[in-house]
Fold this sequence. Notes:
By secondary structure, this protein is of the alpha/beta class. The chain has helices at residues 3-13, 47-55, 80-90, 100-103, 109-117, 141-153, 208-218, 252-262, 292-297, 327-331, 334-345, and strands at residues 26-29, 39-44, 60-65, 94-97, 120-128, 132-139, 167-176, 191-204, 226-230, 235-250, 269-270, 278-287, 302-306, 321-324, 351-353.
Amino acid sequence: MKLNNLVSILDEWAPLAYAEDFDNVGLLVGNPEQDITGILVCHDALEKVIDEAIQKKCNLIVCFHPILFSGLKKITGKTYVERVVLKAIQNHIAIYAVHTALDNHPDGVNQIICNQLGLQNTKILVPKEKFIRKLVTYTVPENHLHLRNALFEAGAGNIGNYDHCSFNSHGIGSYRGNEKSNPEIGERFEFVENKEIKIEVTFEKHLESKILNALFKNHVYEEVAYEIYELQNQNQNLGLGKIGEFDQPLSENEFLQLVKTQMKCESIRHSAFLNRPIKKVAVLGGSGSFAISQAKKLGADAFLTADLKYHQFYEAENQLLLADIGHYESERYTKNYIVDFLIKKIPNFAIILSEQNTNPVKYF
């Protein structure tokens, strides 16, 4: 299989448009035209993972964290990042990273944590903003249903738990074609007024080219009039973190013990106990201190995340229990999720879960 085919599969599953602007996701190393013989899935593409890929004859590494996060000015092998890139290139090994594209995915990193803990009725903690677009176009009544259905088929009209959503209004359109025109209705130089239907549909921004292709392919006009707007609406199905609840509340000790067992933590740093039951829990894999206020706003009894600094524990403000389980620990099951997806998507392909533990933090 060509690398670009696998890139398409991964991007369709976790679109790069889902990723945060600061991130560096997608194909980091490799020729899109190279043939892929095996895939090794890991958390961090370190040098020992490159060695594992060589030993297991895998020439594509799909990793969670991007090994290339900021620009390299030299590749001399002086740093651990440079050594990885050099060895990967020398051995024709491609590297693809998913990171925040999977963080924002509705079934990604944070839903995995919820599943491990048994949280139910989960919703997005921090919905993604400026991700929804609106298409406005006009067509004759005879073309209306065909065009609208084509836009739905391309992915337009999905809002929360609903699909095939649109707004349609009737009006009168007018035009006059010049000597180069070929109007569907009327003649050149003729002023035409005709019944039209205005179609308005929303769509996620990464689908824009697909939506426009459907528009142009299925519209009857020689010149298609359309407008696209960026909406301020938050996307309720995409975003960072999740919030859910236990079927039965737990004590704070029971909650932390559950987290420790299910997330395989060696230790948990937490804020002061409030001697209150834990039922509603917010989670955010990786560095999630920025979402403490949102967890409080949504009424969470506890917020599970990682990389909290000393003063950030004060932000609990006797409103919830903060639990820092460690960065790697909060994301540890992500590579298993990637493997499961790839095995289902391309079952006859060599897909291997890396045996390397790449957690840089050790406990004494």
